[in-house]
Amino acid sequence: MPRFAFINKKYIDFKQAKIHVEDRGLQFADSVYEVIVILNNNFIDLKFHLQRLRYSLNQLDIKFKFNDNLLKKIFINLINKNKTTNGIIYLQVTRGIQYREHKYNKNLSPTLIIYTRNKKFNLPGKNFAGVNTITYEDLRWKRRDIKTVNLLPNVIAANKAKKMKAYEAILIQNGKVTEGTSSNIWIIKKNNLMTHPANTDILKGVTRTSLLNIIKKTSLNLIEKSFTHKQLLNADEVFLTSSGSFITPIIKIDNKKINNGKIGNITLKLAEMYSKSCING
Q1: Domain boundaries of the chain, sorted by first residue
Q2: Arch. (CATH architecture) of 131-280
Q3: Separation between Cα atoms, residue 227 and residue 220, nearest integer Å
Q4: Which residues are the active-site residues?
Q5: What is the CA radius of gyration of the chain?
Q6: pLDDT tens profile 223-244
């Protein structure tokens, strides 16, 4: 457990960190968040996370302005206070405190919550592992491009996966794959690499964004297009991307093995390239 959290303008004992009962983040999920990875004391894709945070705040008209450098200083202080070498920084901004009413006042003071946690990551090497997944109906709201804490459908699907001893649930909408509960999904067929386009149907993942730049250095044919459940199961290789999972091979979906239950060569190569980019900054 971390020792300290940052709430609004103060570092607070983690066990004493609390928000008001009428905070709109608590009562209405009127709140956005980011999860930033720390690997060997380095921030991974921090620039993209802060860009997406600004986008989410703007889309919900939450009046929270921040300075990148000052925010980074808070991150560094928390990393040092909590002795987090490898792990995540959780950052959440709510619209603030108000009497319970759907309509919000314009002069609210946003609530800022930041803390760190230790975490182990699935990186290329002798312990690099592929994972099992299930498919599940996509029940989420229609603005998935905004990274809000409105995550109950994700929670339901993720816990169904947990009951099935699977790592992730791949969400299906009208017969087509959108994304995972906390990840973007990619398929490989011959030399074609396909993933859902970044629109309101999915969250534009930070690892997804970084990987797009890496793919330009390969001979792979990138196709940003929605694909069907059938294409998913018939793919040569499948993998997921997220800040917490980096690039993770998917070797089984429901009862169907992918690539005979083995990590594919292209997936492995991309994982190595992404991991190297993280280490080298």
Answers
A1: 4-118, 131-280
A2: Alpha-Beta Barrel (3.20)
A3: 17
A4: 147
A5: 19
A6: 999 999 999 999 999 999 999 9
